[in-house]
Amino acid sequence: MRTTALLLLICVTTFAPAQAEPRWWKGNTHMHTLNSDGDSAPVDAVRWYREHGYHFVVMTDHNFHTPVDGLNALFAAEGKFLIIPGNEVSAASEGKPVHFCALNPARKITTVNEPTIVATLQKNVDAINAAGAVAQINHPNFGWAFGAKELSLVSGCPLVEIWNFHPAVNNAGGGGYPSTERTWDDLLSAGKRFYGVASDDTHAYRNFAPNLANPGRGWVCVRSERLDAADVMAALARGDFYSSSGVELTDVRSDGKSLTVAVKLGGATRCTVEFIGKGGAVLTRKYDAESTYTFTGNEGYVRARITDSNGLMAWTQPVFVGK
Questions:
Q1: What are the pLDDT digits (tens) for 83-101?
Q2: CA 137/CA 151 separation, integer angstroms
Q3: Which of 29, 159, 206, 255 has its CA 20 to 30 A from that of 301?
Q4: How many CB atoms lie within 10 A of CB 24?
C-alpha cells in the first residue's frame, strides 16, 4: 500500500504542468465601431486587429456596452487573440468633454455629469470601479478639457492616456498648454501613480490618412502569464506594461536599484533611450539596444522614453525611487 502511494506521488510530481512564464501581449484599449461613431461594424473592426498581429482589443464604444461573446466565438483563440468588453464613458462638465475607458466592466455604466470637472472625473471613476472595471482617463487635451491640476485630485484610476492617435486630441499641447506627456510627468512629480497608455482611439477602418483615426498607430504591450481578461486587467492596473507608437521592447526590468530597457531593432534602425525623472527632466540619454540607468535615490521616479531613428516611440512605466 505504501509502495503504491509512493508511486502515485512520483507520477503526480513528475507530470505536473510547468508554471507559465510571463510574456508580452499586444493590445489596444480604445476603439469605436458603428455602435457609436466608428465607420465599421464590430466584426470588421475586430477582424482588422486579429489580422494585424494584436493579441487583444477592448471594445469601447461611446456609452455603449458591446457584447463580446459572439465576437470571441468567431475570432478568439487560446493564447492568440481575445476580445474584452469595454465602454468609453463620455461625460461633460464646464463645457468640456470628460471621457474615460471602462476596461472589462461587468455591466454597462451610467455616465455621470457633475457641475465641475473634478467631480465629474471622480464620480465616473467611482462608477467604473463599482462595475468591476479598470479605469482609464482619456485624452486630457481633447477640447483642452483638463490637466494635472484636476487629475491630481482624482483617486482610484490607474491609467491615463499619454498619447492618443485621434487627430484632434492635441497630444503635443500648444498655446501655453502642456503636452499630455508633460501632464503625466507633472502628476508623477506630485507623487500620483498614473500609468501612461498609448491608444488608437480608432474610428476609421476603411480609409487610411493622417487626418483619420486609423488602427495600428498606438498600443500597449502587457506582461502576464496568460492571455485572459483577468490577467490583462491585472497587468494594466499594476503598471506591468509599456506603451508604443511602433517601437517594440523585448524587456523592461527593475531590481529596485536600476531600470533596464531592451529594444528590438530591425535593419539599420537605431534608437535613443532617454531616462526621465522628476519634473520631466532627462536624467541621461543612451544609444544602446539594451540600456540601464542606475538610481541615485533623488529622482522621485524614473521612466524611459525610447525613440527610434524613424521617429517611432515607446514609453515605459515609472519606477518610484526612494518611496
A1: 999 999 999 999 999 999 9
A2: 9
A3: 29
A4: 18
Distance in angstroms (rounded) separating the CA atoms of residues 17 and 30: 35
Beta strands across the sheet bearing 248-254? 248-254, 258-264, 290-294
Residues 105-163: tens digit of each pLDDT: 999 999 999 999 999 999 999 999 999 999 999 999 999 999 999 999 999 999 999 99
Of 96, 97, 118, 100, nearest to 109 by C-alpha is: 100
Q: Which of 286, 280, 279 is nearest to 307 (CA)?
A: 286
Q: Taking the complete model, does pTM exceed 0.90, yes or no?
A: yes
What number of residues does the chain have? 323
Q: E-strand spans in the chain?
A: 23-28, 56-59, 82-93, 96-103, 134-137, 159-164, 195-199, 219-224, 241-244, 248-254, 258-264, 271-277, 281-286, 290-294, 301-308, 313-315, 319-320
Q: Which three cell numbers stand for residue 78?
A: 487560446
Residue whose cell numbers read 503526480: 12
SS3 of 35-56: CCCCCCCHHHHHHHHHHCCCCE
